[in-house]
């Protein structure tokens, strides 16, 4: 009678392990597999009979043995469970994604729980590894993260030119100002403005003016260094922050921009547009009380360049 009960119990335990939508693996002290449920069989193509009493590490070389042992040993010794989420380690078993067509992921992201299986004497000679398929969750989290990154990028750039917008540029400028106050250096700023831009708009139309702004932004980004921070400060006004660059060296860049613009011709519809720019340079000075004082100096230099005849560079 007891035998019949035991067989019935084994039967429903087997059904339970087979129908459950998580992986169940029981290993002994040597990490030899004792239980391998249908989920594990389906995803690994290894039947329980083929893996029983075999080393988990020999069967799955992708498992980082020292890492898993470090995680699992406290489960044996302290008898307390351990959880590993996909953000810490994307997977334990490298299984293909369940829905490779609809899921952008090539593999199954997994959360893992390892808990002790104590015998009647209280000793833990086996542990159970539970594997949860969290691919959908991981993929949608990653999509949200990517979207957030893209939104953050978009919030920093100017829509017309793709270079930094005023808000973000000013943030960087203020940070550079504070860095120079702490550690006085030779950072400089250039303020640049298109000459008689109103006339370009009036002569060729506003879309042509937009194209001029776009091409000028590209030119500025192309000629400046990667460490320089270029921004569109206003309509046809640009700012370039040059960390650790003294104004004599900035003069070289400013003149290069001025000369390149002078030679540039922009074809827009049937028009050939040429134009010039004026530039003002200001080097950081410890006397500046706040970052806007620094920019005001560049603006004053720009004003001098304008009143001095335009198409020129002035150092504050
Ligand atoms: N196409 C276009 N025009 C713009 C944009 N933003 C501002 N503007 C125009 O830029 C012109 C700026 O004119 P002003 O400030 O008088 O300066 P300017 O004609 O360049 O003259 P100076 O700076 O003194 O050489 C105005 O006509 C604005 O309408 C923009 O995004 N696209």
UniProtKB/TrEMBL annotation:
Residues covered by the GGDEF domain: 185-316
Please name the top-level EC class of this enzyme: transferase
Q: What is its EC number?
A: 2.7.7.65
A Pfam short name: GGDEF
**Which cofactor does this sequence's record say it needs?**
Mg(2+)
Which InterPro entries does UniProt cross-reference here? Answer: Diguanylate_Cyclase, GGDEF_dom, Nucleotide_cyclase, PAS-like_dom_sf, Rev_trsase/Diguanyl_cyclase
The catalysed reaction is: 2 GTP = 3',3'-c-di-GMP + 2 diphosphate
**Molecular function GO labels:** diguanylate cyclase activity
Q: What is this protein called?
A: diguanylate cyclase
């Amino acid at each position: 009678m007891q035998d019949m009960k035991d067989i019935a119990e084994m039967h429903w335990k087997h059904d339970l392990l087979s129908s459950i939508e998580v992986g169940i693996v029981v290993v002994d002290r040597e990490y030899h597999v004792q239980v391998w449920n249908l989920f594990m069989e389906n995803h690994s193509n290894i039947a329980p009979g083929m893996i029983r009493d075999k080393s988990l590490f020999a069967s799955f070389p992708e498992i980082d043995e020292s890492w898993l042992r470090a995680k699992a040993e406290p489960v044996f010794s302290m008898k307390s469970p351990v959880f590993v989420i996909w953000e810490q380690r994307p997977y334990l078993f490298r299984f293909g994604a369940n829905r490779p067509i609809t899921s952008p992921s090539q593999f199954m992201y997994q959360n893992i729980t390892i808990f002790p299986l104590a015998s009647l004497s209280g000793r833990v000679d086996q542990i159970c590894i539970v594997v949860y398929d969290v691919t959908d969750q991981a993929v949608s989290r990653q999509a949200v993260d990517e979207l957030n990154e893209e939104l953050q990028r978009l919030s920093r750039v100017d829509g017309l030119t793709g270079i930094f917008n005023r808000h973000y540029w000013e943030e960087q400028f203020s940070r550079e100002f504070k860095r120079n106050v702490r550690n006085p250096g030779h950072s400089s700023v250039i303020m640049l403005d298109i000459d008689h831009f109103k006339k370009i708009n009036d002569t060729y139309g506003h879309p042509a003016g937009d194209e001029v702004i776009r091409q000028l932004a590209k030119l500025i980004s192309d000629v400046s260094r990667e460490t320089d921070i270029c921004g569109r400060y206003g309509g046809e006004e640009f700012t370039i922050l040059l960390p650790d660059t003294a104004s004599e060296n900035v003069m070289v860049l400013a003149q290069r921009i001025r000369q390149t613009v002078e030679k540039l011709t922009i074809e827009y519809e049937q028009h050939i547009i040429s134009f010039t720019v004026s530039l003002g340079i200001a080097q950081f000075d410890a006397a500046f009380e706040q970052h806007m004082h620094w920019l005001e100096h560049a603006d004053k230099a720009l004003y001098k360049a304008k009143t001095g005849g335009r198409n020129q560079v002035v150092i504050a």
